[in-house]
Design goal:
Elements: H1 10-65, H2 69-76, E1 85-93, E2 100-107, E3 128-129, E4 133-142, E5 145-155, H3 157-209, H4 222-337, H5 343-377, E6 387-390, H6 391-401, H7 403-406, E7 412-416, E8 422-425, H8 427-445, E9 453-460, E10 464-471, H9 501-512, E11 516-519, E12 527-534
Helix pairs in contact: 1-2, 1-3, 4-5, 6-8, 8-9
Pfam families: HAMP, HATPase_c
EC number: 2.7.13.3
Keywords: ATP-binding, Coiled coil, Kinase, Membrane, Nucleotide-binding, Phosphoprotein, Transferase, Transmembrane, Transmembrane helix
Length: about 550
């Protein structure tokens, strides 16, 4: 379907085009001129502030060297007559701490003092502009040694006033040129639009009265003459086309009747095909729901089997130990009743009892740890409140806290994260996720303590933050890559692995942190996990 733009006349279009081109050219020219002028003015201010800063640094050599801040304060008062200077600080190097300390200062009339800039020396060794001022720090060097620093803050009031005056003048000049161009465009559009109006009136007459014998007259514009000639040829041919059109109309009427019949037949066939497609889709939805339910039941069966297997072993061992202890107790009771109990029997009973109690304790404790792990799988998102954390600091703290647990594999841990990356999230679940990944690499990925590497890469975009976790271990077996986040999936069954670690990581990331985690199945070597967290308002 064609799209029609807002209608306009050639008079308005011509005037608007000339005005628009003129305005764009003026704006571009004035903008470039203003930019270059302001840049030159800023360059002059930088040169001036640099020269004044170097003069102050040179004059302050002796006063800083002999700790004569009174003389330096009197000398700085002479800058009251320099409108550019607003604040001056002089810092000396403390002999004990070798750190810069405040020595003397100057504040221009009606200018408030500024905070001490000792912590910003490295950042202000080059001039730094703000909206209202310029700041610069220059070292005070005596015989090749830096004995202090000069901080100078200059005001940009005059530069801003100059820019405002220039903008006003440029606006007035633009308005004057636009008015002048407007009147010139009016003259041009009359010369072009009048012959076009005559052609328009001719066409309206032909359309209304069907007078195809009339012809357009020549004008003093070549393009309009070409248009008039083409119009005259069109009028001559139109009469012939009208006669031919009457004949074609009858043929089209017959074709339309035949086409309607074919359309009705195709419509019926299409309706039947659509109904068949709907029936097929309904069956597919039923099959899909059945498959989903089967997957749920299979996952539930696997979880129940895993829970039964993991918990049944320590409980069975505990029952065995308690049974043995009961038998030993019955035997010692019989010997006591028969008065055949000896110290050797009692000592052996005590030793066996301690061994059985240790067995019962260890296995009950193992069962308690498994139950605690099962409880952690159901992550509670409301346990912790989101706070703003520095991601580089959190990664460093996690690695430091896990140092004693991972040092027997001696991995080289690399953190590629900017120091200013912050995120609004729950630090507890995120820390638990990172600790579990480190523990998983140490337990499952590394077979010895040689050439082991773990890397954290942090990437940030407008809406999310990604943490890429790499290790150069043996990787994940292909048979369990697609099920690595399922519960009770482990390669260390019977060796202390419960298969709940990565499932807990998945629940923490997706539920507590509101993000996502995937395993890179295309990794050439080692393991590669990608954690994606959404950025909330206030994240940096």
């Amino acid at each position: 379907m064609p799209i029609f733009s807002t209608q306009t006349s050639i008079r308005k279009a011509l005037t608007n085009a000339v005005m628009l081109v003129t305005a764009l050219c003026l704006s571009l020219s004035i903008s470039i001129s203003t930019y270059l002028d302001v840049k030159e003015q800023k360059s002059l201010i930088v040169d001036k502030i640099s020269i004044l800063s170097k003069i102050i640094a040179y004059n302050a050599q002796i006063t800083v060297l002999f700790d004569d801040n009174e003389t330096e304060s009197e000398r700085l008062k002479s800058f009251e007559s320099v409108p550019l200077i607003k604040n001056i600080h002089i810092y000396s190097i403390d002999e004990l701490s070798n750190e810069p300390v405040f020595f003397s200062s100057f504040n221009a009339n009606r200018t408030p003092p500024v905070p001490i800039k000792v912590g910003s020396i490295d950042n202000l060794l080059e001039p730094r502009f703000t909206d209202k001022d310029i700041e610069l720090i220059t070292p005070i060097v005596y015989e090749g040694d830096t004995i202090g620093y000069v901080y100078v803050r200059g005001g940009l009031d005059r530069l801003n006033q100059y820019i405002n005056r220039k903008i006003i003048i440029d606006i007035l000049l633009t308005l004057f040129v636009l008015v002048l161009v407007y009147f010139v465009a009016r003259r041009i559009q009359k010369r072009i639009a009048n012959p076009i109006d005559e052609l328009s009136n001719l066409l309206q007459d032909v359309s209304k009265n069907h007078n195809y014998d009339t012809r357009a007259q020549k004008t003093n514009i070549d393009e309009i003459n070409q248009l008039a000639g083409s119009l005259n040829i069109m009028l001559a041919r139109t009469q012939k086309q009208i006669e031919r059109h009457e004949k074609d109309k009858q043929e089209i009427k017959q074709l339309n009747q035949s086409l309607e019949e074919k359309v009705n037949q195709r419509t019926i066939a299409l309706r039947e095909a659509n109904q068949e497609l709907l029936n097929t889709l309904e069956r597919m939805h039923q099959y899909q729901n059945q498959i989903v339910e089967n997957e749920k039941m299979a996952s539930l069966g696997q979880m129940v089997a895993g829970v039964a297997h993991e918990v049944n072993t320590p409980i069975g061992l505990g029952i065995t130990g308690s049974t043995l202890l009961r038998d030993k107790l019955a035997e010692i009771h019989t010997q006591f009743e028969q008065k055949t109990l000896t110290s050797a029997h009692l000592k052996r009973f005590i030793n066996d009892g301690i061994e059985n109690l240790d067995l019962i304790y260890r296995n009950l404790n193992r069962a308690a740890e498994l139950v605690s792990s099962f409880k952690k799988v159901a992550v509670n998102q409301d346990v912790e409140v989101s706070t703003k954390i520095n991601l580089n600091n959190l990664l460093s703290d996690v690695v430091m806290s896990m140092r004693s647990e991972i040092q027997y594999r001696n991995p080289k841990v690399t953190i590629n994260c900017s120091n200013d990356v912050s995120i609004e999230t729950k630090s507890g679940p995120l820390q638990q996720v990172l600790q579990q990944l480190l523990s998983n690499s140490v337990i499952h990925a590394f077979s010895d303590d040689q050439n082991n590497e773990i890397t954290f890469n942090v990437e940030r975009n407008e809406s999310s933050l990604s943490i890429h976790y790499f290790d150069n271990g043996i990787g994940v077996e292909k048979s369990i890559r697609k099920r690595i986040f399922d519960p009770f999936v482990t390669t260390k069954r019977g060796e202390g692995g419960s298969g709940l670690g990565m499932h807990l990581v998945y629940n923490l990331v997706t539920q507590a942190l509101g993000g996502s985690i995937v395993y890179d199945e295309l990794a050439d070597e080692g393991a590669h996990f990608i954690i994606t967290l959404p950025l909330q308002e206030g994240a940096a």
